[in-house]
Amino acid sequence: MARRAALLWPGGLDARRVLPLAYAWLAANTPSDLCELKLFDLALNPRAPGELEKEIAAFAPDVIAVSCFAMNFPQALEAVRAARRAAPKAVVVAGGQHPSSWPEGVLACPEIDFVIRGEGEQAFPAFLREAFSASPRWEAVPGLVRRGNGGLIDAPPAAVEDLDSLALPDHKFIKLDEYLRRGYRVYADHRPSAPLQTTRGCPYGCAFCCGPAISGRRLRRFSVPYALRALEALHRDFGVKWFNIIDDNFTFHPEEAKEFCRAALKLGIPGLRFGTPNGVRAQHGDKELWSLMRDAGWDHFTAAPESGSQRVLDLMKKDLRPVDMERAVREMRQTGLPVCGFFIVGYPGETPEDLRLTMEMVKKFDLVEMFVFQPLPGSPVFRELLAAGKIKADFIPSVDDFSSGQASYVSEELRGVNFYRLVFLVRLGTALRHPLTALGHLRHLDLPVAAAKVFRQALGLLGFRPSD
């Protein structure tokens, strides 16, 4: 009897900016004789719960899997409820960013039976084998969190030790061609673009981040030949020419990053471009690396100082000194490329004086993205705020909170700050200081989305709350 698993990708996030990448990896690394997989993509093809319920009933899955971020967990839960009504005997397992970092919050929902923390390429097939067994040994599934008699039975995040042992992600399974047709791109120009990984894991302990809960603290690398095979497959099958390296630590080992750049140069693909939208670490890199990145196809650098205040960086546990960031930015700019800085404002404990220092550091960058701090469920700072009674366990940040100026959470120290005004003026000031760079950067933006964001900020600047 054929076994089936329904993979739910909920709505709530912009399909022009977010892909169900995890399912491309799962589809490629789940043996076809183990289970039939079917993706129900509610971001690419939205449908009402009743319609989804009919589709799930027709498929009759034994397992229902859902992957989500914190911001679209409410939509994920709605999809799971519809799927359970259609297949009440199916086992439900959740994975992805939000379940990995906040499993206790996810398993507080009775609709979800299990959570897989971390990487799913090996854990998910292991879960399926036990789910299809007459006597499941759940303890054999890496990263599996489940309910027990005395509370939750937790597990460390699952991690693939030999990344080169993985099959290349199946981008056809997630219909990458349709995402590209709909306008998918992130900090890229109009070339077809897609994410690419060269490393997993993060040894840092930034208090605002959930990264280690997903991929662990030990940095692991795909070999350069493996990464290039993935690149060439995307170029061959989908015409991709812009590759966003979505590592948290692409430059952690500068010599290995240089090896990748040199190998990419040898490919000879006309118009090849790269980006590192998660930023690079100031401590890991030198003039030779920045020049190689430029030559390989970067058209700008992204760095994430987060704050210009050492005191706030220490609160964040960022393990960074502003002086190191300033040195790296100077070196990057010497290549002739602009540098974009990512900043977080409104962090718990940040004062107006700290904010002033950040505004000074902003001026050292050619481009700026400013994000209003929101605690991601399960992150270290989220747990601190929860323990202090400053947020509730069911807190979920809004999609618009991070970059528009809207804020579901506002720190006590900066409660009187108009974040709409702050974000708007920072972007305006940067554009006025570097007008040619700002005009050139427009090609990286989805203009309708950017225009809507600026409009919201402008309303906030005038004292209106756009959500009202």
Can you walk me through this structure?
It is a single chain. This protein has helices spanning 21-29, 49-59, 73-86, 97-101, 103-106, 120-131, 176-181, 211-215, 224-238, 254-267, 287-296, 310-316, 322-333, 352-362, 380-387, 401-404, 419-433, 435-441, 447-461; strands spanning 4-9, 36-41, 63-67, 91-95, 114-116, 144-148, 151-153, 193-196, 199-200, 220-221, 242-245, 273-275, 301-306, 339-345, 367-372. With 468 residues, it is α/β, with parallel strands linked by helices. The protein has three domains: 4-153, Cobalamin-binding domain (Rossmann fold); 185-294, 2-Layer Sandwich (Transcription Regulator spoIIAA), CATH 3.30.750; 300-468, Transcription Regulator spoIIAA, CATH 3.30.750. The strands form four sheets. It has a seven-stranded mixed β-sheet with strand order 2-1-3-4-5-6-7, sandwiched between helices. Helix 10 (254-267) links the parallel strand 11 and strand 12. The model has no long low-confidence stretch (mean pLDDT 92).
Tell me the radius of gyration. Answer: 22 Å
Strand content: 5-15%
Largest sheet: 7 strands, mixed
Shape: globular
Overall average pLDDT:
92
Termini Cα gap:
53 Å
Computed structural class: alpha/beta
Proportion of residues in helical segments: 25-40%
Q: Count of DSSP E strands?
A: 15
Note poorly predicted spans. none
